[in-house]
Structure formats: C-alpha cells, structure tokens
Amino acid sequence: MEHKKLLDIANDLSNENICDLINLVSDRFDVFFGCLNGHQLGSGVASASMNGTLIQINCDSADLEDLTDDKFIAGAINLSKEV
Predict the structure, then answer these.
(1) Residue 52 in 3-state DSSP?
(2) Distance in angstroms (rounded) separating the CA atoms of residues 50 and 22
(3) What are the tens digits of pLDDT across the range 31-73?
(4) Model confidence at 23, in pLDDT bands (50, 70, 90)?
(5) Rounded to whole angstroms, how far apart are CA atoms 6 and 10?
(6) Exposed, middle or buried, 73 (CB in 10 Å: 0-12/13-18/19+)?
(7) Could you tell me the end-to-end alpha-carbon distance of the chain, in angstroms, rounded to an integer?
(8) What pLDDT does 80 receive?
(9) By the number of CB atoms within 10 A of the CB, which of 3, 4, 25, 47 ranks highest?
(10) What residues have CB less than 8 Å from 45, skipping those under 6 apart?
C-alpha cells in the first residue's frame, strides 16, 4: 500500500478506532523499554485502551504485581545490586 493511502486511512481513524486496530494486531508488537546492565528489556503488547484523550498501550508485563516477578528483569536488576 502506498504511503499516501495509508496516511489518509490513519488520519481518518478516531483514537477509539486506533485502539481497536492495535488490539487486533497486538500479537505483532513488542515494546522496547531500554537497557539495564546489558539486558535489553521489553514486553509484548497486551492491549490498548483510551485514557482520557490519549491511547494507553498496556504491555504484558503490566499484569505483574512487581516487575521483578519476571525472571529476566529480575536478573538485570540483581546485576546492579552486585556492583
């Protein structure tokens, strides 16, 4: 699809429509948070929803009670404690 056509479609979507679209393809996304002690931290996308006038994208890791419940993230954090 050419860029102009895609831009026209995007500009015609409401934020609610964009949330629906993100939810339909969320399994194709991964969010990169950044690096910590040589670990590249990220998470899959669980869902998108409206938060006031903004679109909120919720990562799979948002369902954790504590980010250290994720063994990979905990490993990165524990490395900083060892230094």
Answers:
(1) coil
(2) 12
(3) 999 998 888 999 999 999 999 999 999 999 988 899 888 888 8
(4) very high
(5) 6
(6) buried
(7) 50
(8) 66
(9) 47
(10) 22, 26, 27, 29, 30, 31, 57, 58, 59, 60
